[in-house]
Amino acid sequence: MSQLVHAFAPGRVNLIGEHTDYNDGLALPFAIEDGVTVTATLATGGLIEAIAIDLGERDSFDAASPQPAAGWRAFVRGAAAELRDAGFDVRPARLELSGTVPRGSGLSSSAALEIALCLALLGLAGDEPPEAVALARICSAVEHRWVGAQTGLLDQLASLCGAAGTAVRIDFRSLAIERLPLALGEHRLVVLDSGERHAHAESGYNERRSECARACTALGIDSLRDAEPAAVEELPEPLRRRARHVLSENARVDAAVTALRAGDLDELGRLLDASHASLRDDYAVSTAAVELAVARLRDAGALGARIMGGGFGGSVLALLPPGAAAPAGAVEVRPGAGARLL
């Protein structure tokens, strides 16, 4: 058991494969260098005190019996509760939370927060963290039960399994994870914040997930991974377009893997554009602010650009060729190491 623990979990960029994780599909994310740090100090008494340094806010609750709360407090209380429900010891503690991932920008600050909290609380109790998939499920339960967002496992697995210089191909049916070198040469990946905040639980994210479930019911299948394209085209709207996006996006993930292995970055850019068109037209998760950000990146010479994350705001990812100047506000992103104790 430790008296003091520092835990870090990175945010992530999803290169391609959006809204596929909760449909047993494929995705190709990578961890980034920015993330969330939680400093945990063992405390006496029965309380967990949490301090969100960036917000200047505090919370305090019974470590043995966390109660529901809103906002960032829901993540802290949920992490303690879900770890306890999974059989881990949760000690009274003082938690200091800080981060470099902008909230609501589509870079998965939520998953980074959940993971850093869980690693810090586990480390403080002297418990070894469970393997990546099991810990990702615990963190996902925090979002489902405490925050109200029915997310999949993409963000958590990307943060936990990331490695410097690599992307990870995740098959969400088998949960097989394959690391792939993300060799871009002089090309750069950049993200541009649209300036429009999103919140999964308050946006159409849960509605899109429900629509996918309804499409499965109509097709008589358990997952859109099993859908036949011809059958999808017979679905009523908007279920037809939702399911069509999932099928086409899965295909784009494997096409992107092929392009990366071949060093064909022009093709990778084309796939980013195709993904955005599908997310905009078939999945309907873009906004006017996002489209403006996409246009700025394309005007700067991007080979491809697309909305990231749950949608309804957030950031846009673009692939810039050598010599192209990123528009003001765009930030280069590089694959970094996964979540860990510092």
Commentary on this structure:
- By secondary structure, the protein is α+β, with helices and mostly antiparallel strands.
- The protein has two domains: about 5-180, Ribosomal Protein S5, domain 2 (2-Layer Sandwich), CATH 3.30.230; about 185-330, Alpha-Beta Plaits (2-Layer Sandwich).
- The chain has nine helices and twelve strands.
- The strands form two sheets. Strands 1, 2, 3, 4, 5, 6, 7 and 12 form an eight-stranded mixed sheet that branches. Strands 9-10-8-11 form a four-stranded antiparallel sheet.
- Strand 9 and strand 10 (about 315-320) form a beta hairpin.
- Helix 1 crosses helix 3, helix 2 crosses helix 4 (about 155-160) and helix 7 packs antiparallel against helix 8 (about 265-280).
- It is globular, with a radius of gyration of 20 Å.
- The mean pLDDT is about 95.
Mean pLDDT: 94
CATH class of the largest domain: Alpha Beta
Largest sheet: 8 strands, mixed
Q: Extract low-pLDDT stretches.
A: none
| CATH arch. level architecture of the largest domain | 2-Layer Sandwich
Task: Estimate the strand proportion.
Answer: 15-25%
The counted number of beta strands is 12
Features:
12 strands, 4-stranded antiparallel sheet, 8-stranded mixed sheet, Ribosomal Protein S5, domain 2, 342 residues, single chain, 9 helices, globular, 2 domains, Alpha-Beta Plaits, alpha+beta
Layout of secondary structure:
Blueprint: E1 4-16, E2 26-42, E3 47-52, E4 57-62, H1 72-85, E5 93-99, H2 109-125, H3 132-147, H4 154-161, E6 166-171, E7 176-181, E8 188-193, H5 205-219, H6 229-232, H7 239-262, H8 265-281, H9 288-299, E9 304-307, E10 315-320, E11 331-332, E12 340-341
Parallel strand pairs: 3-5
Antiparallel strand pairs: 1-2, 1-12, 2-5, 2-6, 3-4, 6-7, 8-10, 8-11, 9-10
